[in-house]
What we know:
Four copies of one chain form a homotetramer.
Chain A: E1 8-17, H1 23-27, E2 41-49, E3 61-65, E4 74-78, E5 82-84, H2 95-108, E6 116-119, H3 123-134, E7 140-144, H4 147-156, E8 160-163, H5 169-176, E9 182-187, H6 192-201, E10 202-210, E11 219-221, H7 223-228, E12 232-235, H8 241-256, E13 266-271, H9 275-284, E14 291-295
Parallel strand pairs in A: 6-7, 6-9, 7-8, 9-10, 10-12, 13-14
Antiparallel strand pairs in A: 1-2, 1-4, 1-14, 2-3, 3-5
Amino acid sequence: MREPAPDEVLLRVASCGVCTSELDMWQGMADIEFPRFPGHEVSGVVERAGSQVEGLEPGDPVAAWVTGRGFAEYVAVRAEYCFPAGSVPLDLALAEPLACAVNAVELAAPALGDDVVVIGAGFMGNLVQKLVQLKNPRHVIVADTRPDALERAAQLGATRTVNVLSESIVDLVREATGGAGADVSFEVTGAQAALLTLGDVTRMSGKVAIVGYHQGGMRELPLAAWNWMAFQIVNAHFREIDTIMGGMRAGMRLLTSGRLALDDLVTHRYALEDVNEAFATAVAKPEGFVKATVTIGPSPPG
Amino acid sequence: MREPAPDEVLLRVASCGVCTSELDMWQGMADIEFPRFPGHEVSGVVERAGSQVEGLEPGDPVAAWVTGRGFAEYVAVRAEYCFPAGSVPLDLALAEPLACAVNAVELAAPALGDDVVVIGAGFMGNLVQKLVQLKNPRHVIVADTRPDALERAAQLGATRTVNVLSESIVDLVREATGGAGADVSFEVTGAQAALLTLGDVTRMSGKVAIVGYHQGGMRELPLAAWNWMAFQIVNAHFREIDTIMGGMRAGMRLLTSGRLALDDLVTHRYALEDVNEAFATAVAKPEGFVKATVTIGPSPPG
Amino acid sequence: MREPAPDEVLLRVASCGVCTSELDMWQGMADIEFPRFPGHEVSGVVERAGSQVEGLEPGDPVAAWVTGRGFAEYVAVRAEYCFPAGSVPLDLALAEPLACAVNAVELAAPALGDDVVVIGAGFMGNLVQKLVQLKNPRHVIVADTRPDALERAAQLGATRTVNVLSESIVDLVREATGGAGADVSFEVTGAQAALLTLGDVTRMSGKVAIVGYHQGGMRELPLAAWNWMAFQIVNAHFREIDTIMGGMRAGMRLLTSGRLALDDLVTHRYALEDVNEAFATAVAKPEGFVKATVTIGPSPPG
Amino acid sequence: MREPAPDEVLLRVASCGVCTSELDMWQGMADIEFPRFPGHEVSGVVERAGSQVEGLEPGDPVAAWVTGRGFAEYVAVRAEYCFPAGSVPLDLALAEPLACAVNAVELAAPALGDDVVVIGAGFMGNLVQKLVQLKNPRHVIVADTRPDALERAAQLGATRTVNVLSESIVDLVREATGGAGADVSFEVTGAQAALLTLGDVTRMSGKVAIVGYHQGGMRELPLAAWNWMAFQIVNAHFREIDTIMGGMRAGMRLLTSGRLALDDLVTHRYALEDVNEAFATAVAKPEGFVKATVTIGPSPPG
């Protein structure tokens, strides 16, 4: 536990989410150097503020952006990377994944009354679906292969869910959109098959948004068809820190104002000593699993 | 009642809204040639479809875009200017003003979690407010001078209302936004004073959207301050027919899908023989008045 | 030779370009129904104007947009699809391919001072290069495998050319851009290999523009790397007629004002009776070949 | 002369431009506190680099962004605010005003083949004109009241110049644009009259760009007409430091690559001891005056 620099705050960590991107690291499979320190979905309470910090005081609950070492009791973080959590329970103040989803949805920019398809109903797919719904399109059609995931998507507000193992998503989208296809389609799986589906369900000149992270070799795309259909291809990944911070700010504003809640997505909570079990569960993805967080310090009274 | 051209449908008019822009014409004050034929906020039921029309059949309820003569029993209109009304009551299918508001809001493009100010709580201000809320900003602060209008804005979902005659909107916005000012501010009055307020409540590099139609001479702007604040000025008017049709399509999708309803805005209904009273009321704007429509034919069973 | 409809003009065709997209049709290989009528890069002189046409008179030289049958002495075309050719030689008034290139470059939107890579130095690649240069980036690096094509690219104004068979384009771009990579990269080949190169030469968060038409099966993309680099993917194809017309208008304005000339790209001209030889040459692509046109009627005095 | 901080370089100043925005300060008329230290258009040679600075070494010529104190022999500046000047003469490396003009032109974004009007042919008007021309519109029509300024605008490449004291700019623009009006119009005067002219020369749905800084009270706008014409209003001022730096980077890339030169705009040069004369001349604006710079240290061999 080090002292905060003049522009930092020292946070007493309340909670840290388990991110899919760290599962490889935890399993020792990733092609990276060790030791590494996972944990970047952090929230906590300000313990001490650096000498130049304004607007943050000891006791303030915040969500924060860190690049690792989040599974710890304390973490020092730049004050400008902290966002007020208000009365949001800190284990639900998952600002970092929320920032990714906010930025993806803002870039794809579904308009009022658009028809939208979301392929993938895991945690990120659910976040994308929820944020798309906050923009009030007409139809929100969610596809997956897992019945429990589709049931959850329906409860979250999908106007239609599709199990692609047993139903024709192309027929369903065509029917819902009067034959035209979706205005915007999101792929949130990282899988080859979902990419192909994008092209089949999107209208001419519509947008196909790639949100999934496509690890594991080349992806095949029917580019002649995508050319012909004049799709706008949206690669929903960001590297500018300002963009990431903008997404966190927007996401935390949605949470603190009650426009959005994540209580229906955090399904598994673990104590810090059970962090290994948290990762194991995130790998196993048992039925009903969406998102695991590790509770570290006491949450302030909400 | 003429036959529809091959690409037209003949509509049996159900309802036509009374538009503020036509009040001058009705009062005989406008500097225009007579006779003129007001009425452009039309809905009705397809009576006959032209020979080349696809997708519309007798009996279909639609909202339509016409440039006048809407206060009539029948009107012929291009099929591509008709939008399905589904089970929306036809006196609430006000597609034309909705299109204006949809296009204004989409151009100003408030992002998820933004703070928004709407100055003006008449019919168009209410529409803008409702559509802004469908995009889920954080705060929606509505200003006006009429207590009944502000009460209605609150019921429509404003997070805060301001009577600018008795409260400081600058102080209120500053407080709500942590001192920064609004991300997007809409002026929906057409009045000089509201323009000046825009600059006082908007953050640096934020957007000031001019939706009101500024008739009656020059407007004064503190342009040095607007330069200095690097505002993005949004002139929310449109002339391209494709843009207008896009706004109607989106608006009717919102209505038919239940994402939006206008039953709280249509406050006065008149029979065709009372059209003069409808205009007189729209001019007088009695307390509680928002929008008048003239009911012409029978609405189909909703 | 039919009479023009009220909104059409009858053109006496002066010239029609031979388009790569029609070579399959000519060779009988394409999977399409016959008979087909190729020829869509048409210019000519107005012979007669329909009764409702304004602004076009007999004798006016124009470039026109038709969807086929351009290899003919006369063609009837909607007046709004005709653009004045001024004193531009009509065999150089290739408005349709120019429209494709204008729209591709405007969509990718290289900014003043950007570094740009163009992969492919055939006719469309040359057009893209010329239009990119009209936007005054800093570097314009052109890659191909044919020495004659690269020599032409250099003469057209490339700041650097790269023969990817013998030089490392990655090294060259890195050196030219201070290690960052190009701001915008265009693929104008339709080939798999060029797609892969895009990712290797573009900076983080830069734009990769796919202009080539990718026929012949799936394309493989290293999507994980493209995700990680947060590339903006630009699919430079268009289907809206308004967009195509906008590109033709802009392209013809560039030609008629002398900002752009195409005399260095039309390398082969044929008489109408030699149209088969024109197609054969376009298929064979002999050294020095860029673009073939078929001269049909007499060009007016330029 | 202080030592550079770890992320700074110490510059030996070569040249500093005299900016119009500082003339009030020099004349003691501005409503600001004294002492103030003018001079923000600085170029020089790196004397020493801070310990963490990479990519800049003693002897490197650069243009730099400072907020004042530029009329001095040495200035310390953050390394990331320095841009290589290559072989550009340092008294012509006016990166700061160039950044303003680059950002204004990129925001207004004239497209290939557009028709553009620039009102105001002083130094900033000339810069805007030159950058607009680098984007290759069709017509560039420049208006002013000073014959010498118009003659210079013509030499810089205007396709037409207009003395608004003796010619009708409305007629001229209408004629040049086939009756439509300009696609984009820039006001670069800061004067009331030029604002009114914008609306008279711009086509429906076109862009009106306000670049001039409108000090000295309210400005009057015919907003009803601007609403009706559906103009896109572009307020070409910026406050984000990243945007300013982006403009400097682009501007210096244009200069160092030879795409742009400013030798025709710097008309008056002064020694440091004559700085008062430099300001007096900038106030007096004698015929032929465009821009004054103060030469401080020796320029490196270009």
